[in-house]
Design brief:
The complex is a heterodimer.
Chain A lengths: L2 H12 L19 E4 L15 E14 L3 H12 L7 H10 L8 E10 L2 E2 L2 E15 L4
Antiparallel strand pairs in A: 1-2, 2-5, 3-5, 4-5
Chain B lengths: L9 E4 L2 E2 L4 E14 L10 E15 L18 E7 L8 E15 L7 E16 L1
Antiparallel strand pairs in B: 1-2, 1-5, 3-4, 4-7, 5-6, 6-7
The chains are: A alpha+beta, B mainly beta.
C-alpha cells in the first residue's frame, strides 16, 4: 500500500462531490467548503502473512465549511455527515467499497465522524473529522 | 538459533500460494498413544501408535479467484496437496508437504470488521519434513 496513492485516490473521489474543494495533500490553505486529509497517526504492518495486508487504522479526513451563523453552518455541514446522499462522505466510500473499485487499497471505510467549531485562518468554521480505516496489500504488485 | 515470525510463513494449497490471505495457522502432527499397562506396576506404560496430522488455516475473506474462499470451498471433501514453510520458502528452509482432505470450512464476520474464513485439513498419509 502506497500512502500517497491512497491519499490521491481519496482526493479524486472527494473531488467528485459538487462544490467541495480538495486542495493538494498538505496544502496550507483550503477554501471552504473543503476536504483535507491528515497525515496518518499510525500504520500497522502485517495484518496477514508474508506482507499480505497492512492497515491504516485511523486516517482522518476533515471537511470544513464556513460558519456565518449557526443555522447556515450547520446546514452546510449536514449533507457531508449524512449516511446517504450526493455529498455524503460515508456513501462515497461505501460505494467504492461495494464496487471494489479502489486501486490503491482494498477498503476505505468511514467508521465515525466528529464535529467541531474550530478557528481556521482566524475565522470560525464548522469541521467534520471523518475517521477512516484503510486496509490494503502489504506489498503492492 | 533465530526466532521466526509469520512475516515469512509460506503455504500453498493445490499449488496456489495463499500465504498472503492467512492470519493464523496451526499445524498439528501427532501420534496415537496406546496404554499397555499390565498388572503389578504402579506407573502406566504406553506405546506410540499411528501418526496423523491436521492443519488449520484462517484469514481474511478475499474475492480473488486464487484466494479463499474461491479456492477452498469447491475442494470440500477432496484431497489437495499442501506445502507449508514455517520459515519461508527460500532454499534450505523447512518444508513440510503432504496431501490432506479439505474438511470443515467456516466463514465468519461481524459488524465493524473484515470477514474471515477458516479451513481444517486432515492429512492423508505422510507429512514429509524436508527443505526447500
Amino acid at each position: 500500500m502506497i500512502i500517497l496513492d491512497v491519499v490521491n485516490e481519496l482526493r479524486a473521489a472527494l473531488a467528485t462531490i459538487t462544490g467541495l474543494n480538495v486542495p493538494p495533500w498538505g496544502a496550507d490553505i483550503a477554501k471552504p467548503p473543503a476536504a483535507v486529509i491528515a497525515m496518518p497517526d499510525s500504520i500497522e504492518f502485517d495484518a496477514s502473512y508474508r506482507r499480505g495486508r497492512d492497515t491504516i487504522p485511523d486516517l482522518q479526513l476533515i471537511v470544513i465549511v464556513d460558519y456565518q451563523n449557526s443555522r447556515s453552518g450547520f446546514e452546510a455541514i449536514a449533507p457531508y455527515l449524512d449516511g446517504s446522499g450526493p455529498k455524503s462522505i460515508k456513501a462515497l466510500t461505501a460505494a467504492k467499497n461495494a464496487a471494489t473499485s479502489w486501486t490503491s487499497c482494498d477498503r476505505a471505510r468511514v467508521t465515525s465522524v466528529s464535529i467541531d467549531l474550530p478557528t481556521y485562518k482566524e475565522t470560525t468554521v464548522v469541521s467534520a473529522t471523518f475517521h477512516l480505516t484503510i486496509i490494503g496489500k502489504g506489498i503492492t504488485p | 538459533m533465530t526466532a521466526i515470525d509469520t512475516e515469512v510463513t509460506y503455504c500453498t494449497v493445490a499449488g496456489n500460494d495463499i500465504s498472503q490471505f492467512i492470519t493464523a495457522h496451526s499445524l498439528e502432527p501427532e501420534a496415537s498413544i496406546y496404554d499397555f499397562t499390565g498388572y503389578g506396576v504402579t506407573w502406566q506404560r504406553n506405546r506410540g501408535g499411528l501418526k496423523k496430522w491436521t492443519l488449520h488455516l484462517e484469514g481474511f475473506y478475499d474475492d480473488g479467484v486464487v484466494a479463499p474462499p474461491s479456492l477452498i470451498l469447491p475442494a470440500l471433501g477432496t484431497l489437495v496437496a499442501i506445502v507449508f514453510g514455517p520459515e519461508g520458502s527460500t532454499t534450505g528452509k523447512t518444508k513440510r508437504t503432504g496431501n490432506a482432505i479439505t474438511g470443515k470450512y467456516t466463514e465468519a464476520g461481524k459488524i465493524d470488521g473484515l470477514q474471515t474464513w477458516a479451513i481444517d485439513y486432515t492429512g492423508d498419509n505422510t507429512l514429509t519434513d524436508t527443505v526447500f
